[in-house]
Specification:
Helices cover 29% and strands 21% of the residues. It is of the alpha/beta class.
């Protein structure tokens, strides 16, 4: 069995990762570490994880985490690098935070306000050439939730040259768990219920350079993007509407075919039948991505809508998918694309 340590295990992504590890045939849950909740019982924080209810959160130290074969870091942005620096070089590490996602150090410092720690393999396996990079790596930067939804929606169209690179507009709504577990006034139920609101409007969201990086890699040239995030009154899920100018001569059939062909052998990415549009409820609790596309001939724009679970494919599910690939295990082990309803 493969021992997995989880740092930041008291958070939403950390708890979801533990749940997935418990259902994996080759992983055993090793040390579970937390910051302010160290010393508390896991069952007090994650009552849904009854089989580990009596496990106690340990301190987040290299001595604790380094005893495992694989270390998952579900820490706040900017905290992973210091932990990684103290881990044994033999540890395989997957960072669910943003510390190692960006190659451009100036962009990292602009959006995160901290020194740049470097970059690792960017673990979005469905993007061109990435799966083989993940398989050969021992350190993986797990993508952000919004960037995952956007990259998978637009990458094939950029690869095939069907959309322009200079006028991409994304509006995406996320569930409240995307903001983490720390209590803040704007996330209490009375503020969120029955309301949807925009935030960090005007290019200020930290995921913007990450989206531009992955999309530029797919396009083979620089991509410019306008991103407006929104907070939706639901605990989990992302619905992203991604729009770009269609190139001259692009047809609705050709645009759809580009997406279908790109993902026809991907176990987690599904282009829905014509007329069926993605919804967050369908992917809740899964590692699935649902996509649909339309060509607005009136405006000359392509619209791709994507739905993911921000804690699944947007965080813990993708981290486990990357771990499977890195360790040479079947990619789908411990993961599902089938949700629950209602």
């Amino acid at each position: 069995m493969i021992s997995a340590a989880v740092a930041g295990a008291s958070g939403y992504a950390g708890g979801e990762l533990i749940r997935l590890l418990l259902g994996h045939p080759d992983f055993v849950v090793g040390p579970v570490a937390a910051g302010g909740k160290a010393g508390e019982r896991l069952g007090q924080v994650h009552p849904q994880l009854g089989s580990l209810a009596d496990r106690v959160f340990e301190p987040t130290t290299a001595a604790v985490l380094g005893a495992a074969d694989v270390v998952f870091l579900a820490l706040p942005h900017g905290e992973s690098a210091a932990v990684v620096a103290q881990l044994p070089s033999t540890c395989k590490v997957i960072d669910l935070g943003a510390d190692f996602r960006l190659r451009d150090g100036a962009k990292w410092e602009q959006f995160y306000g901290l020194p740049h720690a470097g970059s690792w393999v960017y673990g979005l396996p469905e993007l061109p050439g990435v799966r083989s990079q993940v398989a050969g790596a021992s350190q993986i930067a797990n993508p952000g939730c919004f960037p995952t939804a956007v990259a998978l929606a637009l990458s094939p169209l950029l690869v095939d040259g069907l959309i322009g690179c200079d006028d991409i507009v994304v509006t995406a709504a996320s569930g409240t768990s995307g903001a983490g577990r720390k209590a803040t006034e704007q996330l209490i139920a009375s503020e969120v219920m029955g309301s949807i609101s925009a935030y960090k409007v005007g290019g200020g969201h930290q995921h913007t350079p990450e989206m531009e990086q992955s999309l530029s890699d797919s396009a083979g040239r620089s991509v410019r993007l306008s991103f407006t995030p929104m907070l939706a009154p639901m605990p989990r899920g992302i619905l992203a509407s991604c729009s770009a100018t269609a190139v001259s001569g692009a047809s609705a059939a050709g645009i759809r075919e580009s997406l279908v062909w790109a993902y026809e052998n991907e176990p987690f990415v599904h282009v829905l039948p014509p007329g069926q549009w993605p919804q967050t409820a369908s992917v809740s609790g899964t590692n699935a991505v649902h996509l649909q596309v339309a060509l607005d001939e009136h405006s000359g724009r392509v619209i791709v809508v994507s739905a993911i679970d921000n804690l699944g494919k947007g965080a813990a599910g993708q981290a486990l998918q990357n771990a499977n690939i890195m360790l040479g295990l079947p990619e789908t082990w411990g993961l599902t694309c089938d949700g629950v309803a209602p």
